[in-house]
Amino acid sequence: MKLTPENINKIIAWQRKGKRSVKIEIQCPEQRIQKKEPVRIWVFDYDVLEGISIKKIEDLPTHDDLVQMGIEAKKQEVKRLEEQLATIKMSERMAI
């Protein structure tokens, strides 16, 4: 993403819409060889406790996008824990 004045203004406008933070990292030339994107932007919304790394200005998430991401993350965590519990129960049955 190019950090044009227009893009920076859009990022600032996004940040001001709530309890939000933005972290912009511009990598040194040595790191640019290893990674394609010299600029990394992380956006986080404290109201929904979710954030993402964006590659283009169009990727700035809406409040609803972040809420949905949170729901999906929690569903994945529940699934992971259910699988872990099933493994534990199976181990306990085999030990009997």
Structure overview:
The protein has helices at residues 5-15, 29-34, 63-95; strands at 20-26, 39-45, 50-54. The chain has one domain. Strands 1-2-3 form a 3-stranded antiparallel β-sheet. Helix content is 52%, strand content 20%. The chain is an alpha+beta fold. The termini are far apart. It contains 3 helices and 3 strands.
What order do the helices and strands come in, and which of them pair?
Blueprint: H1 5-15, E1 20-26, H2 29-34, E2 39-45, E3 50-54, H3 63-95
Key words describing this protein structure:
three-stranded antiparallel sheet; 96 residues
Q: How many strands, which pairing sense, and closed or not: the largest β-sheet?
A: 3 strands, antiparallel
Low-pLDDT segments: none
User: SSE order in H/E notation?
Assistant: HEHEEH
Task: Name the beta content range.
Answer: 15-25%
Strand order of the largest sheet: 1-2-3
- The average pLDDT score comes to 89
The number of distinct β-strands equals 3
**Residues in helix, %:** 40-55%
Class computed from helices, strands and strand pairing: alpha+beta
Tally of domains:
1
Q: What is the tally of helical segments?
A: 3
Oligomer: single chain
> How widely separated are the two ends?
59 Å
Radius of gyration: 20 Å
Any idea what the shape is?
elongated
